[in-house]
Design brief:
This protein is α/β, with parallel strands linked by helices. The protein contains 22 helices and 15 strands. It binds pyridoxal-5'-phosphate. Pyridoxal-5'-phosphate binds next to helix 12.
């Protein structure tokens, strides 16, 4: 399997090379040149396998330059060794009215772990395969979840270092504590005076500074990124859609070949794009439901074909979906049109004017598979309350958005195919909002007390990683000005 750029002007690469590069040289994203196809027998065969074994079978179709042994090693390090607090890794909870695909049983209690536990292993293996001698330094700007999940994945992975910048005072207390207690000889986390955009722009400038890259190369350090444009982060996400289907088959909830729907809480369009790949491969999916919060740029795009990022930005109780540029949409446009020149033109228009409009033929093809809607914070909290009342299940805020939109879909279309709501975070991760939705208003400041309250209410076990925060020592204490970021990177690179 080879990989090419969505913008058509980069070399064809192997998977290992695409994973090392992250972004293509022409600014595009790497996509596979062909989509492997699965048979009904393949789907049946998954039912008796563990998550790790399911992942081995599916990823082998895409990462053809990795040997079976290499892949198995990577997968054991990512999903084995008790790293997840449920042996099924991505269990499906079958409720009365719907099914919940829980993607938050990893070490940081958010779905980012599903990919960020594996990406560092795939990258480390790729570096060895290519005989890369330099250290790869991963730079991340985070608004909360990605930073911790990336650090947890890259901690002590040979040949790599990871440095995370976050806005000082701009992440939740739990998120900050999760990051500041991260162990590993190769990790650094630094607060930046400023907001998330300052941190992100600082990182982007470092990536675009050729002289700085030269300076790092003299230290035998090569920069790379761990965000969801990397194929090594997207491919692992395809697995859990197959896994969910296999679990529904195994539980007798569906017959082989029956179509199901997925509702996905969407930000950067990575999670739902992985579902699209699963559909292209032959997984029986009827509709992919794209759920947004008040930053509903994708709802508008999927309904009208106009992508317009020039709009007010809202801070919501679903911060991981507070995003106005969904990078992975570029991959969808490429597969729908198979026209790299056209994709390049749209992306150029987006950069210059903040908007682009796709033609009617393209929109019709997208709408044949995708359905979109959104809900605001009130709708989100209302759904948490209803879910608890009706199903005795407590979803996190992001999951509640997808659940609410799934219900809207059913009402509007009358489609009664089995629904899977993709659950992207443990409710503990957003405990204050979840408790408030459940009517607990006199909330204490202390996180530990809040966890105990949510435990009493939901009967869900407090995730290991979050419970351990109580007594974990703070290991990092770095704060810098926006202008100092590059100097801090250089100092860490030399260490
Ligand atoms: C990142 C994230 C999302 C959005 O996923 P995308 O792949 O960016 O669309 C949704 N929910 C949570 C909790 C997340 O961390």
């Amino acid at each position: 399997m080879r990989y090419i750029s969505t913008r058509g002007n980069a070399e064809e690469l192997t998977a290992a090379e695409a994973i090392i590069n992250g972004l293509a040289a022409d600014g595009g994203l790497y996509v596979p040149t062909a989509i492997p196809q699965v048979t009904p027998e393949f789907l049946t065969s998954l039912t008796t396998l563990s998550y790790e074994e399911r992942a081995a079978k599916i990823l082998a179709l895409f990462l053809t330059d990795y040997t079976a042994g290499e892949l198995r090693n990577c997968l054991t390090r990512a999903y084995g060794d008790d790293k997840f607090d449920d042996p099924r890794c991505a269990p499906v909870e079958c409720l009365t009215d719907t099914n919940i695909l829980e993607l938050w049983h990893g070490p940081t209690s958010a779905f980012k772990d599903m990919a960020l536990q594996l990406l560092p292993q795939l990258l480390g293996t790729a570096l060895r395969k290519k005989g890369e001698e330099r250290t790869v330094l991963i730079l991340v700007a985070t608004s909360g979840d990605t930073g911790k999940a990336a650090m947890a994945g890259f901690a002590d992975v040979p040949g790599t270092k990871i440095m995370v910048f976050y806005p000082h005072g701009g992440v939740s207390p739990v998120q900050e504590k999760q990051m500041l207690t991260q162990k590993g000889a190769n990790v650094n986390v630094t607060a930046v005076r400023g907001n998330f955009d300052d941190a992100q722009n600082g990182v982007k400038e470092i990536f675009n500074d050729a002289a700085f890259s030269e300076e790092l190369l003299r230290q035998d350090v090569k920069l790379s990124s761990a965000n969801s444009i990397n194929w090594g982060r997207l491919a692992p996400q395809i697995v859990y859609y197959f896994s969910a289907y296999a679990d529904l088959l195994k539980a007798g909830k569906i017959q082989l070949g029956a179509e199901i729907n997925f509702s996905v809480p969407t930000g950067n369009f990575g999670d739902i794009l992985a579902a699209y790949y699963a559909k292209l491969m032959g997984l029986p999916i009827h509709k992919l439901i794209c759920a947004s919060n008040a930053n509903n740029v994708l709802t508008d795009f999927l309904r009208t074909g106009l992508y317009d990022r020039k709009r007010p930005f809202f801070k919501t109780i679903t911060p991981s979906m507070d995003i106005l540029i969904s990078s992975n949409l570029e991959r969808l446009l490429y597969h729908i049109t198979e026209n790299a020149a056209q994709v390049k033109a749209w992306m150029e228009e987006l950069r210059q004017t903040g908007r682009y409009q796709v033609d009617e033929g393209t929109l019709a093809k997208i709408q044949a598979l995708f359905w979109a809607d959104w809900t605001d914070d009130e709708g989100t909290k209302d759904m948490i309350r209803l879910a608890f009342a009706r199903e005795n299940y407590v979803p996190d805020t992001h999951t509640a958005v997808a659940w609410r939109v799934a219900e809207n879909y059913r009402k509007e279309t009358g489609d009664s195919r089995p629904m899977v709501v993709v659950s992207t975070a443990s409710p503990y991760k957003f405990a204050p909002h979840v408790l408030a939705a459940l009517g607990e208003n006199d909330l204490p400041e202390d996180e530990a007390v809040m966890f105990d309250r949510l435990h009493k209410k939901s009967k869900l076990t407090i995730p290991r990683g979050l419970a351990a925060l109580r007594n974990a020592p703070l290991l990092h204490n770095n704060l810098c000005q926006r202008e100092e970021m590059a100097a801090r990177v250089l100092a860490f690179a030399k260490k």
